[in-house]
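Example: Cellulase family glycosylhydrolase.
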Amino acid sequence: MKHPLVKSVVLLMLLGICLQTRAQQERAVWSKEKANEWYQKIPWMAGANFYPANAINQLEMWQKETFDPKTIDRDLGYAAGIGMTVMRVYLHHVAWETDKEGFIDRMKQYLSIADKYKIKTVFVIFDDCWNDTYKSGRQPAPKPGIHNSGWLQDPGKALHTTPALISTLEAYVKAVLTAFKNDKRILLWDVYNEPGNSGYGNKSMPLLQKVFSWGRTVNPSQPLSAGVWNFRLKELTQYQLENSDVITYHDYTSNESHFRVADSLARVTGKPLICTEYMARTRGSYFKNILPGLKERKIIAINWGLVAGKSNTIYAWDTPIKDGSEPKIWFHDIFRQNGTPYDPAETALISTLTGKR
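Written out as structure tokens, the predicted fold is:
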């Protein structure tokens, strides 16, 4: 029989091996040098947050019954027509859970359409915004005049009422990242949109930590990031900045405020920036006062909204129009569904800055 001291030493050695193996499996956050080396190899891009005009939410976009390559192709064609070369696209774990192989196949179909137009993709994994419950199948009709009336959180309150869901989420994240970990059509993975929104606050921290850990375990060739959006959420913001390979952020304010934030983030982190949400006309965030400054700083620019549709994002967050009539000033979006621009001066500016004209 071995001496207790020998047994203790053996156990400690085994523990050390386990910890070392785990550390080897989960790669480190990119250094400033690696992040900037990656960024120097890609051109400046402008693009939009994307969902086809006939989808009210992520499930309607990705479920088999309502996935619509024809409309996706049409809407991405409008974007390509003004020189846009990047789209930010939300996923949802329920679409994967109900049809795992089909979901991955539809992601491949989307990427093929986008690639035809030379458009890179930023996929978003989790989201704390808007409706906190959801179910697969037929999705609700839009509520007249209400911004994003059918948009879905993921995983929403189910994570807090059904803790066992975490194992499904882990399997989902790892399956998706593994399937596309070396796909050059994907620019980066946005692992969690606006963690802490909808009143969750630090309740979102455990999932934020887990999704970064799962991502670093898979170790895709593309960077991982979670965009900072509310500096009052200090712990979440700090964690996002420290764990993002490149820095992504949201800012819907006017140019002075926007660039004060952007310049500060660049100075403090030393990493390249990608603006993954901006442009809210009635809040002073326009293409004309934001996009030129983003290009000047080589900050990839992704505005909210492309083609006006079931998401109702031509209406402002806090200004519903109950009869569903068109607002005098669109909040988001660029095109009508027939391809006519809301403001031809805007599309002309975008085309000029992207080199399309």
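Confidence is low (pLDDT under 50) at residues 4-10, 17-23.
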